[in-house]
C-alpha cells in the first residue's frame, strides 16, 4: 500500500466509475433519441427519411460506444457523435435542440472525468 498514490476522488475504482458515467450518458442519449421520434411526429412536423435514418444511426452508435467506454478513443468518438447530432439540426430543428442538450450533458461528463482522473485523462 505504501507504493500507491492516494486517490483524490475517494472512489475504489475511479476509472470504472467514469466509464459508467460515459456509458450511462450515451445510453440515455440513445433512449431519448429513439423515444423522441413519436413526440416529434406528434408536433405535426413530418420527419424525412434522412432525419429518421440519422436519429436511428446516432442512437445505434451511442449504444455501441457505450459498450466500448474502456477504450480511450471512445470518449473522443462520443464527442464527435455530439457534433453529428448538432449537425443534424440542418435536417430538423428538433435534432439541433437534442444536440445542444446532449452536448451540454456530454461536456459535463467530460468535466467530471477530468476531475476524477486528473488532467491527463485524454
What does this 3D model show about the protein?
The protein has one domain. The protein is elongated and about 50 Å long. It has 5 helices and no strands. The chain is an all-alpha fold and 122 residues long. Helix content is 70%, strand content 0%. InterPro entries: DUF4233. This is DUF4233 domain-containing protein. It comes from Micromonospora yangpuensis.
The Cα radius of gyration reads 17 Å
Estimated share of beta-strand residues:
under 5%
SSE pattern: HHHHH
How many domains would you count in the coordinates?
Answer: 1
Task: Give the helix/strand layout.
Blueprint lengths: L13 H22 L1 H6 L6 H18 L6 H15 L5 H25 L5
Helix pairs in contact: 1-3, 1-5, 3-4, 4-5
Pfam families: DUF4233
Keywords: Membrane, Transmembrane, Transmembrane helix
Protein name: DUF4233 domain-containing protein
Q: Features of this protein?
A:
single chain, 122 residues, mainly alpha
Quick rundown:
The chain has 122 residues and is mostly helical. It is built from five helices and no strands.
